[in-house]
């Protein structure tokens, strides 16, 4: 029976993410697992039970890694399965030693956030994002507005807390306390919706519109092929850029991560072509490339002004590119580098984030604290063309936009390309599909299609509480968790 309940939780965990995306199930997803933990006699048994749940869950979440390398899939699933295994072990340990009903109910949500933080600093390039149940609420934007104060971890805390309260409401003991705790959690949820009503009344002021054009070129992902077809790729991007210019007269034209697969900074021929193109179209061109400096290779973004001048170069900043683990996804040769500073343009300061750096909230936050008025995300999810990975990755734009109350423009080589407003809503624009020569209205591009996404954004300079103070709630959870473990282990509190 315990095994069946645990497997049920694993299945529910798979159902709350894309492509099925039944986020409402998140509020009961851990109840079967909690009931099975209560019935389990030993913490060691709970550990292996959690390990099995993790293997099933993360195999469902990370199946797209099989399109890359099987051993990477196995390593990642194993590492993240230990998350749920440790969660189950320590939760059962606390439950078996503490007679305090409040501590029993509150330990799981605080401990989940603590483990999530620890996984966030593991240099796999995936981080606590994959342990964060709060992301399952992507379709409930009214509920998510509070993350501009608390961060997404608070949403996860409420989800795990509601699950624990439901569990002990079903079980015969601790029921009165569980009901009280559930009422408190529901009260917090009510306050969140109240905050949403006051927040959405503050409409985005239209000081000045900035027109952007995102080029989704949809090139074959193979790096060996791309390196030998640089001229073809540049010609296609150039043609698409001129088409965007004629239809929208954009202020910024964005190309994807690794758009031009050559070292542009050390290749004067291609550098001059890009400089000339930016000047001719009279627009800023933002594109992804790479460069080698002092024996290191950097994944970078180059920004050419409308005068053809190189404004800035931004490199990946996160620890995920240090050579610690043989992931993520074949970029072990890429070094971390440069800084978190936005760059100045005549349209305001722009923060740029490359690829899966957008899964780390602190990077976008540091950009905005450095006065970035809007954010550009450049990505390339081409390795995972027909899986749910591009969708999972693309939804990060929504959370980074709400946390910092900034417009986010996302461009990806094979999709998904879109723009998000400061409240997490997709910004409608015109999608031009050159292959079919049609224009229509939509909110994001189609995967694996050559398209141009044309839209407008507005700069914003106000800083949210979350932007200013960061993940204070996560640090609070860490302190509370340590305190709970100390009390129970030393005093059987």
Summary of the model, kept short:
The protein is an alpha/beta fold and 493 residues long. It has helices spanning 2-15, 31-39, 43-61, 70-97, 101-120, 141-144, 147-150, 152-170, 175-200, 223-227, 230-248, 268-281, 361-369, 389-394, 396-404, 465-469, 472-491, and strands spanning 210-216, 252-254, 284-293, 296-304, 310-315, 334-335, 343-345, 348-354, 374-379, 408-412, 418-420, 429-433, 438-442, 451-457.
Describe the protein's topology.
Elements lengths: L1 H14 L15 H9 L3 H19 L8 H28 L3 H20 L20 H4 L2 H4 L1 H19 L4 H26 L9 E7 L6 H5 L2 H19 L3 E3 L13 H14 L2 E10 L2 E9 L5 E6 L18 E2 L7 E3 L2 E7 L6 H9 L4 E6 L9 H6 L1 H9 L3 E5 L5 E3 L8 E5 L4 E5 L8 E7 L7 H5 L2 H20 L2
Parallel strand pairs: 1-2, 2-3, 4-6, 8-9, 9-10
Antiparallel strand pairs: 1-14, 3-4, 4-5, 7-8, 10-11, 12-13, 12-14
Instruction: Quote the beta fraction.
Output: 15-25%
Major β-sheet, in short? Answer: 9 strands, mixed
Provide the CATH architecture of the largest domain: 4-Layer Sandwich
Estimated radius of gyration: 24 Å
N/C terminus separation: 30 Å
Query: What is the CATH class name of the largest domain?
Result: Alpha Beta
Mean of residue pLDDT values: 88
Shape: elongated
As for the number of domains, it is 2
The CATH homologous superfamily name of the largest domain equals Carbon-nitrogen hydrolase
- Helix/strand-derived category reads alpha/beta
């Amino acid at each position: 029976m315990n095994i069946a309940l645990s497997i049920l939780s694993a299945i529910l965990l798979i159902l709350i993410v894309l492509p099925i995306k039944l986020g409402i199930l998140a509020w009961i997803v851990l109840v079967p697992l909690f009931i099975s933990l209560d019935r389990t006699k030993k913490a060691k048994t709970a550990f292996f039970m959690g390990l099995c749940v993790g293997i099933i869950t993360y195999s469902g979440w990370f199946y797209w890694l099989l399109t890359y390398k099987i051993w990477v899939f196995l390593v990642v699933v194993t590492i993240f399965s230990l998350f749920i295994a440790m969660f189950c072990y320590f939760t059962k340990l606390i439950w078996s030693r503490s007679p305090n009903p409040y501590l029993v109910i509150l330990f799981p949500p605080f401990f989940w956030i603590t483990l999530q933080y620890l996984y966030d600093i593991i240099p796999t390039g995936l981080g606590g994002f994959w342990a964060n149940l709060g992301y399952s609420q992507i379709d409930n934007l009214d509920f998510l507005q509070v993350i501009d104060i608390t961060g997404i971890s608070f949403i996860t805390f409420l989800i795990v807390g509601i699950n624990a309260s439901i569990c002990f409401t079903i079980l015969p003991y601790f029921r009165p306390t569980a009901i009280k705790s559930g009422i408190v959690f529901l009260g917090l949820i009510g306050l969140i919706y109240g905050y949403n009503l006051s927040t959405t009344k503050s409409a985005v002021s239209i000081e000045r519109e900035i027109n952007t054009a995102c080029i989704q070129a949809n090139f074959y992902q193979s790096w060996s092929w791309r390196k030998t077809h640089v001229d073809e790729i540049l010609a296609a991007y150039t043609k698409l850029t001129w088409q965007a210019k004629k239809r929208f007269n954009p202020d910024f034209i964005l190309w994807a991560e690794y758009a031009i697969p050559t070292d542009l900074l050390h290749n004067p021929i291609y550098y001059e072509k890009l400089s000339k193109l930016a000047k001719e179209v009279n627009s800023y061109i933002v594109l992804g490339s790479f460069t080698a400096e002092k024996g290191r290779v950097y994944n970078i973004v180059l920004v050419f002004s409308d005068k053809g001048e190189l404004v800035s170069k931004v490199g990946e900043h996160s620890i995920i590119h240090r050579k610690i683990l043989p992931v993520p996804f074949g970029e072990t040769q890429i070094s971390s580098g440069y800084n978190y500073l936005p760059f100045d343009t005549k349209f305001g300061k722009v923060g740029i984030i490359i690829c899966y750096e957008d899964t780390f909230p602190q990077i976008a936050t540091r950009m905005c604290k450095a006065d970035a008025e809007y954010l550009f995300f450049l990505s390339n999810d081409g390795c995972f063309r027909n899986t749910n990975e591009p969708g999972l990755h693309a939804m990060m734009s929504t959370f980074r936009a709400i946390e910092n109350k900034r417009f986010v423009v996302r461009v990806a080589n094979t999709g998904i390309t879109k723009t998000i407003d400061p409240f997490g809503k997709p910004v409608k624009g015109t999608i031009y599909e050159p292959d079919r020569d049609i224009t229509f209205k939509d909110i994001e591009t189609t995967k694996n299609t050559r398209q141009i996404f044309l839209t407008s954004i507005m700069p914003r300079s106000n800083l949210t509480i979350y932007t200013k103070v960061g993940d204070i709630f996560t640090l609070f959870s860490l302190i509370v968790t340590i305190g709970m473990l100390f009390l129970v282990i030393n005093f059987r509190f």
